[in-house]
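Retro notes - structure team

What went well: the batch runner handled both jobs without manual restarts.
What didn't: labels got mixed up in the shared folder, which is why I'm recording both outputs here explicitly, each with its sequence directly above its tokens.

Job 1
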Amino acid sequence: MPDEAFQDAKKAAEGTPDSFWKYTMYRGPAEDGTLDAKVKVHYCTSSRTTERVIKQYFMNEKVLGLDLEWVSNALKSWGPRKNVSLIQLASPSRIGLFHIAAFPAKDTLVAPSLKKLLEDPEITKVGVWIKGDCTRLQSFLDIKTRGQFELSHLYKLVKYSKTGEHNLVNKKLVALSTQVKETLGLPLFKGSDVRTSDWTKPLNMNQIIYSSSDAYATVQAFAVLNHQRENLESVPPLPHHAELNLPIETPEIVVPEATEEQEPDPEAAVEDSAAIQDQAVPEAKTALEDTLVREDGPAPEDEPVSDAQPDAGNMAPKLEKLPGEQITPAPQSKRDGKPSSKTNSEPPSNPGPRATAELNSQP
């Protein structure tokens, strides 16, 4: 993240749109190896484009942010489109929004490469309440996700290893918004209007920013926390993949298996969730030029979640035509919570003005 963008956000009035952490503030790896390329968002509404985007941009990653969105209070009988409406993946340079609910009626809901990626234990998928998301993927899409990494485990390991309070290292979950504020230095917007919106319809710009930021926040927070772990005086091992149900190891103690979190309601499971205040979705003011690629062509006119209409001049994305693509211009609810060694050609984005971290694969 450019320091100027960070400082501007810090100076913005608390609670205003410009004060929140957003993926659009970051710069990822460019083709020349510098960190000055805007983070691209690939919005896919078919299995065909999902397959191509996964193969082209995500299959060679070793660490990815993972998040899901679904219709609030959806019943199991409502089927996969309402219970796993959107799958988000994020690398330092790109975000993939795979809108399962918007796939054509006769389309297969799970692209082969997406299933292969999620079930590959060598590709670490970072999230908050990651077990809950992966249980949902298995229940509704028959995807047995491996390489699950609970960000809360690393957060507590680093935080309390610094102070020597190893007895506080446990497997209780911590809200993503709390982790982002402490780790990346800015608050993450978590408004209820977007969180509980209809994720089965074509995504509007508020939903795109919200869902993209959630997934991208996890991969950036992992980078910073892992960098901090590696620089501790006594370096503890990286926590194991969550599906292995192994203890968290610290320099002095091993957190016993008995402290493994249960699978409660996601809202209740997240620490500090009661302190998170729902707010109206702010008017989106972030310019998205050259960041959004609608892989399946134009979409219907956006219908903002909030009553406030986004500034069309500022929000309308200018779509980039990538090599070999024909682009037609057009734009969970656990919400407070939702890792590849990177290829040499794609170093991680600068996670913030105070820390630049390298993503490391799971040992």
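Job 2
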Amino acid sequence: MEELINTLQNQGIEDKSVLEAMRKVDRKDFVPSSFKHRAYMDIPISIGSGQTISQPTVVGLMTQE
């Protein structure tokens, strides 16, 4: 998880409340079991029906704006 947080910071996410929220809300809880091994990668992940869970960097940037 901390590696992902470091990636987010390197991508320009600086708001401490956004970073803390992303630490507390475990992305692993929102991805299908077949993708749990990718939960902390900075990539969108398929959740079925042609939909994806957004890339963490995108979520962080949108949230801090």
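One thing worth noting from job 2: The chain has one domain: 2-64.
We'll revisit the folder naming next retro.
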